[in-house]
Amino acid sequence: MGEASPSAQSKVGLEASLGLQILYVEDDLDIQEALQEVLEAAGYRVTVASTATEGLSLLRAQKFHLVITDYNLPDINGGRMLSQAAEAGILNCESLILTGASRLDDVTAYRVIRKPIDVDKLLLKLSEILAPVRTQELAKAKAHLEVTLDRRNDTDTQKRIGFTFYISEASTSSLRALRNLQKLLDEYEPSQIDLRVVDLSKERPASFDEDRITFTPTLVKRSPEPRVYLLGTLEHIQAVADLLGDAKVERKK
What we know:
- 38% of the residues lie in helices and 19% in strands.
- It is built from nine helices and nine strands.
- The protein has helices at residues 6-9, 29-41, 52-61, 78-87, 119-129, 131-150, 172-185, 206-210, 238-246; strands at residues 21-25, 45-49, 66-70, 94-99, 111-114, 161-167, 193-199, 218-223, 228-231.
- The strands form two sheets. A five-stranded parallel sheet has the order 2-1-3-4-5, with helices on both faces.
- α3 (52-61) runs parallel beside α4 (78-87) and α6 packs parallel to α7.
- It is elongated.
- The model is unreliable at 1-17 (pLDDT under 50).
């Protein structure tokens, strides 16, 4: 069976993707497809390769947050692939080797998970490995929203709809929710929206008690009254759009 091109094999995950990029190198196409579906369902964006050579080519061409590789590949083993990538200065991310082999070479510097693999435990491990990356991405998404919405006209105070968005650092759900909200608000005129993003792992403002926050992420429409609460990752972003529509927020031309 011929290999598909990297571009044909690269798939974008859910619309609510975390935006975290994983390179998955596996020559067994059935296993490759199965784990890719699991990872994408968890919100990751996955690019697959079938050989170490293809994996190295992809590492040279684009940025990834994590490389997952099988150990037994048809050209060189996964440990050697990672070593070559490190030597070439293109392994600028975390890495993980999956294997059922009894003997392993070239892997002492890398994390190894033995097959058979418990999917729930694997996803928990990925969440642990990528926690620092999620923190960075969360900060970037928060900063993007704040900078965008700071470009407003102070004479429009009476027209604005006020939101407070409560999140938690390194939270998968918070990052998904921020990305969903960012995508929606990019379509609206910033001068019509007041949004404060509160990271509860870093601060507890007076509004936290006023809003009686129990879960993160929670988006609270505080003004105009009545107060409205939206919990979770904002997958159903139309609920936010409905609130903006009711407040007559003007879409950008």
